[in-house]
Amino acid sequence: MFNSIGMNGEPECIYFVNPKEGYLFTNKSDTDWSKVTEEQLDDPNYFPKSNDIATIYKTIDGGKNWARLYSLNDYHFYKTSFIDKNAIYIKIIDSKEVLKNKLLKVDIKINNVTVLNFNFERMGEIWATNQSIFVDSKNNGKSSIYSTNFNFTKVDSVKENNVFKDKITLLENKPFVLTWDNNLYDIEKKELTNLKDIIPDCIVKKDAESLIIAGKKKNSIGLLRFDSRTKNTQVIKEFKGYSIVQGLESNDKVICGFIGNIKGSFTEYDLIYSLDQGKTWQIQELKEKSYIRPNCLVNNILYIYSGGSRFQKIVFE
Q1: Which of 77, 98, 200, 284 has the most neighbouring CB atoms within 10 Å?
Q2: Which residues pair with 83 in a beta bridge?
Q3: What does residue 59 show for φ and ψ, rounded to 5 degrees?
């Protein structure tokens, strides 16, 4: 556990390029008290207006110090985001108009920020394949998948009937997602696979040909392996005594996530991880059990924001 310096606001998303260089997206509401009169202060029914500020910070020392890169007034970041090579794409919401969402791009190679000049009423997941950025959204009551090029100069759309539940996961550059009716959905082929063994909550890439799907069973959390060639699913692990799972992440070194239970007014989580592509699993207690997001897995290191400008740094060995 370590304290960080320089960040301001509540973190919504974090991404590390490598164990040292990272980006943090925070939200903050500021009130200008100098413009509030004494009469307004004496009025118990008066509530001063606050200004929302969305800020991007950058670190080059593993999160110990953060420097402000860019700020946007009257917007706030949302956790929906996607990383593609040299760019981070994230959802921003107009603070004054809830049905006004934008797509923001951070080019981490040149530290440049661009906002797509298009309004999404209800903006869902983000992903990128074949030189295009995709967003599932509902505009004018109609659900569609919108696409734009990397330069944000053109927008197209196609109708989509399924409602996405979790982040998009790419398998051999093909997008898969969970739907709210407990299906795994191949977006390109428009194929649905019903998941009967669990109530699915999140997915992650296991290897080049398969996914791991995590979800609830009776009095436990189950992990399934989905084979993209055969379309078969197989239960590979069960964590008894847990009722919540979220935050699956993976790379070629680690697969990890969080399982937990509601304790009073809070949810307490433990870390689960595998160092052999899902063959064997370990459970580790966290020093801060209630704050687990945002987090980011980079190489063999997991960074977790733990509230109060603190981070947990877990090195998998």
Answers
A1: 77
A2: 88
A3: -120, 150
Q: How far apart are CA 80 and CA 92, in angstroms?
A: 9
Q: Distances from the Cα of 210 to the Cαs of 50, 59, 63, in angstroms?
A: 47, 34, 33
Angle at 17 between CA 117 and CA 228, to 5 degrees: 80
Q: Distance of CA 106 to CAs 11, 22, 115, 151, 169, Å?
A: 16, 12, 9, 12, 20
pLDDT at residue number 169: 96
Structural contact between residues 126 and 168, judged by C-beta atoms closer than 8 angstroms: yes
End-to-end CA distance of the chain: 17
Query: Contact at 8 Å (CB) between 309 and 9?
Result: no
Q: What is the pTM of this model?
A: 0.90
Other C-beta atoms closer than 10 Å to the C-beta of 105 total 20
Residue of 50, 60, 51 whose CA lies nearest to 24: 60
Main-chain phi, psi angles of 117, to 5 degrees: -80, 65
Residue 147 and residue 157 in contact, taking contact as beta carbons nearer than 8 Å: yes
Question: Is 232 in contact with 211 (CB distance < 8 Å)?
Answer: no
Q: What distance in Å separates the CA atoms of residue 98 and residue 101, rounded to the nearest whole number?
A: 7
Q: Could you write out the DSSP letters of every residue in 183-210?
A: EEEETTTTEEEE--SSEEEEEEEEETTE
- Amino acid found at 150: F
DSSP per position, 114-180: EE-S--BSEEEEEEEETTEEEEEEEETTEEEEEEEETTS--EEEEE--SPB-S--EEETTEEEEEBT
Name the maximum alpha-carbon separation found in the chain: 71
Q: Which residue has 């209630």 as its token pair?
A: 290
Nearest to 20 by CA among 50, 52, 58: 58
d(CA 160, CA 168): 15
pLDDT tens, residue by residue, 34-57? 666 777 667 777 666 668 899 999
Q: Give the pLDDT of residue 130.
A: 83
Residue type, 191: E
CA 224 from centre of chain: 21
